[in-house]
Amino acid sequence: MFTIGQVAAATELSPKAIRLYEADELIAPERTEAGYRLYRDEDLAVLHFVRQARVLGLGLADIKAILNLQRGGQQPCDLVMGILDERIAAIDRTMADLQALRTALAGARADAEQATLDGEDAVICRIIEHAAPPTT
Q1: Looking at the domain that runs over 1-74, which CATH code has it been given?
Q2: In angstroms, rounded to a whole number, what is the distance separating the alpha carbons of residues 44 and 38?
Q3: Per-residue pLDDT at 126
Q4: What pLDDT band is residue 134 in, cutting at 50, 70 and 90?
Q5: Which of 75, 78, 61, 67 is nearest to 27 (CA)?
Q6: Which stretches does DSSP call E strand in 3-136?
Q7: Radius of gyration for the alpha carbons in the chain, expressed in angstroms and rounded
Q8: Hey, which end of the chain has fewer CB within 10 Å, N or C?
């Protein structure tokens, strides 16, 4: 059995995060008569899994669903594959949005430079006034 300090050191998680994961029912440590939490090896394994899943960008709801399947005797790998596919698609959308924004910013910069060379006046700032909205 381990104390929260020992678990925090072993998992590289803060005690606050460990208590949060307990509140979200990802782990269920035992309690002493004085109310202190005591963690088992199984809790450490789950916390290592949670930490790695968070590194991969999984949310707590997804992690809880994965753990519930596993605890129910099912292999959660199909669910994990679906979650990872959703995360990859979201990243792809974000990258496309950022590329469109970059293109719009570069175009605004070039247009502003040309307007300056052409001697055009601006009410406030021609960079913003002449910028085309990004296309998505």
Answers
A1: 1.10.1660.10
A2: 11
A3: 65
A4: low
A5: 67
A6: 30-31, 37-38
A7: 25
A8: C
